[in-house]
Amino acid sequence: MAFLSCRKGEIQNADLPDTRLFLDQIQLPDSSRLITRVELHWFGSVRNGYITGYEVSSDGGASWGFTVRTDSTFVFPIPTGNQNTIINFQVRSIDQLGRRDASPAVLNIPIQNTPPTLILRDSIKDTVFTVLSFAIQAGDPDGVETLDSILIRCNGSDWISIPATTEIITIVPDNPQQIGAGSAKILRGTTASLWPVRLPSLFVGGQNQIEIQARDQSSALSPIVQSVSFYLRAISSDLLLIDAFSSGADARQTYTKAIQSVYSSGFDLLPLYDSNRKYFPTYWNPAFSQLINLYDKVIWYSNKSAYAGTDQSSGLVLETATSHLQNWLNVGGKLCVIQSLPAIDTNNYFSFSSPVFNLLPADSISTSIGQARIQTDSLIVPISGNYPTLTASAFLVQVSPFWPKPGAEPLYQAKLSSVGGWTGPNYVAARTRWTNGKPQLIYFSFYLTNKIIFSNSLMRY
């Protein structure tokens, strides 16, 4: 690269402003042109006056733009389909009388386009539970403003173009219960904005591969990024069972056996903590929200040590899911939650401001010292509805007695055993109803094992 002198031709009128660029000429071989982002500097002077601003042009003087700056970074366009061009850049100064430099400073800038880049920010798992969400990051050495679009395709089908500003992509099959290749909705961002064009050739109940690349305004393309091959699970029921029990297989065996015995339509199981949280939603919003939208009913069971992260400071996983479950309830979902709650603590790991109190029909729990227990053979007595009296077949330690919210319908009271001086309420189940009287949400605050509870509550919807 050679930079020649920064003088320009003779000024024809000494009373007019004079403008100079710090470069008069750029000499580069064709193979070493500049990228489209170029920083330029200039200055102006005038005899018997002062400079008030400048006008710059990047199209040989056909159009001008005003600025008071003496430097700027420009991203020059390259005609669509071309990979290089020469920009005729001009700048002229203006004095306090509005007079312009009659002979603007000129610089011919040889530029070439640089292809865009794209990376897949998330590792797509080898098994996807019906809804796929992942993040991408597109860039361009010439500036992200030179990006034109993101291209995406599935299983080698036609490329679909979506806006270059897309950062999170969610794919939802149009017929998630139908095995085979079909179309899918493309949702953009955390707001799940629906793109009007469908993604073809997504195989429900089979293997898939997503390919993505970025395209810039000169039609240059980034290298194609391929996902791993993944199996997309079909839905097989209107009921989703979410296993959010952080440890132990006995809870799953208990609940799956109970549901199988009373619900002939079967259910789909989402095991959040299996294989080191392999099936945790990559993005709760929109992936988890879109998944539960595919179901009429959800049963969520969890324990008080089921954290969203690695410890209690991250909060309960139910707290993370609460707003999405509530939005789903608001559009007609039916939910059963089986969840014991941690004690209210001074570190505010769990407090009365927890979002679970917005979701559940529990108004509050005791702040007493000690703990509540349900001893073996103790009774759990129904308050209303056609529910059986239950007898604890084992010593229950995961119990969270609560005071129901006003308007909630208490369902069960338990004969509790106080440990360490505990005092508090004895309600352990409650529900809310729709305005038409049908149950909307049922909450059990203890480890539930009796299959009749499922038959006489959730399954009657």
Description:
This protein is mainly beta. It has three domains: 2-112, Immunoglobulins (Immunoglobulin-like, Sandwich); 117-232, Immunoglobulin-like, CATH 2.60.40; 239-460, Class I glutamine amidotransferase (GATase) domain (Rossmann fold, 3-Layer(aba) Sandwich), CATH 3.40.50.880. It is built from six helices and 35 strands. The strands form nine sheets. The protein has a nine-stranded mixed sheet with strand order 24-23-25-26-35-34-32-29-30, sandwiched between helices. Strands 10, 12, 15, 16, 17 and 18 form a six-stranded antiparallel sheet that branches. It has a four-stranded antiparallel sheet with strand order 6-5-8-9, with no helix packed on it. A hairpin with a 6-residue loop joins strand 15 and strand 16 (180-188). Helix 3 packs across helix 4 (317-330). It is elongated, with a radius of gyration of 33 Å.
Q: What is the multimeric organization of the chains shown?
A: single chain
Number of domains: 3
- Protein structure class: mainly beta
The amount of beta strand, in percent, is 35-45%
Rough shape? elongated
The name of the CATH topology of the largest domain is Rossmann fold
Fourth-level CATH superfamily of the largest domain:
Class I glutamine amidotransferase (GATase) domain
Query: What do the pLDDT scores average to?
Result: 87
Secondary structure: number of strands: 35
Question: Top keywords for this entry?
Answer:
9-stranded mixed β-sheet, Rossmann fold, 3 domains, mainly beta, disordered N terminus, Immunoglobulin-like, 461 residues, 6-stranded antiparallel β-sheet, disordered C terminus
